UniProtKB/TrEMBL annotation:
<keyword id="KW-0326">Glycosidase</keyword>
<feature type="binding site">
    <location>
        <begin position="149"/>
        <end position="152"/>
    </location>
    <ligand>
        <name>substrate</name>
    </ligand>
</feature>
<feature type="active site" description="Proton acceptor">
    <location>
        <position position="32"/>
    </location>
</feature>
<feature type="binding site">
    <location>
        <position position="109"/>
    </location>
    <ligand>
        <name>substrate</name>
    </ligand>
</feature>
<protein>
    <recommendedName>
        <fullName>Extracellular exo-alpha-(1-&gt;5)-L-arabinofuranosidase</fullName>
        <ecNumber>3.2.1.55</ecNumber>
    </recommendedName>
</protein>
<dbReference type="InterPro" id="IPR016840">
    <property type="entry name" value="Glyco_hydro_43_endo_a_Ara-ase"/>
</dbReference>
<dbReference type="InterPro" id="IPR050727">
    <property type="entry name" value="GH43_arabinanases"/>
</dbReference>
<feature type="binding site">
    <location>
        <begin position="169"/>
        <end position="171"/>
    </location>
    <ligand>
        <name>substrate</name>
    </ligand>
</feature>
<dbReference type="InterPro" id="IPR023296">
    <property type="entry name" value="Glyco_hydro_beta-prop_sf"/>
</dbReference>
<dbReference type="GO" id="GO:0046556">
    <property type="term" value="F:alpha-L-arabinofuranosidase activity"/>
</dbReference>
<feature type="site" description="Important for catalytic activity, responsible for pKa modulation of the active site Glu and correct orientation of both the proton donor and substrate">
    <location>
        <position position="152"/>
    </location>
</feature>
<dbReference type="GO" id="GO:0031222">
    <property type="term" value="P:arabinan catabolic process"/>
</dbReference>
<keyword id="KW-0732">Signal</keyword>
<dbReference type="GO" id="GO:0046558">
    <property type="term" value="F:arabinan endo-1,5-alpha-L-arabinosidase activity"/>
</dbReference>
<feature type="binding site">
    <location>
        <position position="32"/>
    </location>
    <ligand>
        <name>substrate</name>
    </ligand>
</feature>
<feature type="site" description="Important for substrate recognition">
    <location>
        <position position="285"/>
    </location>
</feature>
<feature type="active site" description="Proton donor">
    <location>
        <position position="215"/>
    </location>
</feature>
């Protein structure tokens, strides 16, 4: 997380969203992408100034739509005094007829972080009903009080219609808690669970995230299981990037999530889904969906031939005989997003 955020500064401004690949085609440059479909239009939201987002009619040609926040959330500097305008790791979901967009603000390499949520009737910026209404902070992490980091939210609905938020990065791992009825605060009495973590050596200073390289939970329900995807390794380190995606699953939302060997992700377990290769040295911070009858893995990847610039990737998820997700690394090359200039 701490190292990943080095690349989440000015390089993610909207003007820098155009990334030109080896073939010379303008592609979509994103970090931490999430996707939704409204009507016939797909939308991708990404880390960036005010949260950058794009629209598409075919999941391949993407038009930049600007930013969600014209300025910054009113509460951001309260939670993160060094907040610089870049909002991290959004998650988008539909609930009670509205779209909920969760997001993170933070100080670089610190637990001075908070997760907020903004709500809209529509994702279409051309609709007369389009208006994001910020609901404020959902949770906050405070140095000296907490040993977890309030970033990287993902919200899922359980079988009973209750909302749950997974979140977290480094420190003591990924957490899960139940949301209240309007999905804007923790439910009371609060119910918290540790769903995944990696080893944090003894005597690591509390202010240090440590080498416990785990972040970006995303929970996907399929075939009677909840699948917990997470990103391990270091992001945004150019040729030294080690970012990759792992998974575990559980019959119940609160876990335990176990990998293919039966190891609990809360004890360091996690089975590989996809990792970097020669062409795409590091990839991760995925989301997962069933859209138009296809199961999809959405993530960012760093292209070696383009000086390790981040690119949007949308990959098909297949399922093996034991019910585990499988993706084809060849799709990292075959899927090429196309950035459509504004006005076209």
């Amino acid at each position: 997380m701490m190292l990943r955020r080095m690349a989440a500064g000015a390089a993610l401004a909207l003007a820098a969203a155009v990334k030109v690949g080896a073939a010379g085609a303008a592609q979509v440059g994103v970090h931490d992408p999430v996707m939704a479909k409204e009507g016939k239009t797909y939308y991708v939201f990404s880390t960036g100034p005010g949260i950058t987002f794009y629209s598409s009619q075919d999941m391949r040609h993407w038009r930049p739509e600007g930013r969600v926040f014209a300025g910054e959330p009113a509460w951001a500097k309260q939670a993160a005094p060094s907040f610089d305008g870049h909002i991290w790791a959004p998650d988008v979901t539909k609930h009670d007829g509205k779209y909920y967009l969760y997001y993170s603000v933070s100080g670089f390499g610190k637990i001075t972080s908070g997760i907020g949520v903004t709500v809209n009737k529509t994702l279409d910026p051309r609709s007369p009903d389009y208006k994001w209404e910020d609901q404020g902070m959902v949770i906050q992490s405070v140095p000296g009080r907490d040993l977890w980091n309030a970033i990287d939210p993902n919200v899922i609905e359980d079988e009973a219609g209750n909302g749950w938020m997974a979140f977290g990065s480094f420190w003591t791992g990924l957490k899960l808690f139940k949301l209240n009825a309007d999905w804007t605060k923790p439910a009371e009495p609060q119910q918290w669970h540790t769903i995944a973590r990696r080893e944090r050596p003894a005597f690591t200073p509390d202010e240090n995230g440590g080498p416990a390289e785990i972040e970006a939970p995303f929970i996907f329900r399929k075939n009677g299981y909840y699948y917990l995807f997470a990103s391990w390794g270091l992001c945004c380190q150019r040729e030294k990037s080690t970012y990759h995606v792992v998974v575990g699953r559980s019959r119940t939302l609160t876990g335990p999530y176990v990998d293919k060997d039966g190891k609990d992700m809360a004890a360091g377990g996690g089975s590989l889904v996809i990792k970097g290769n020669r062409d795409w040295i590091g990839l991760g911070h995925n989301s997962a969906y069933t859209i138009d009858g296809r199961d999809l893995l959405v993530l960012h990847a760093y292209e070696t031939a383009d000086k390790y610039q981040q690119k949007l990737k949308i990959l098909d998820i297949q399922w093996d005989a034991a019910g585990w997700p499988v993706v084809d690394p060849a799709q990292l090359n075959s899927y090429q997003s196309v950035l459509v200039p504004p006005g076209k």
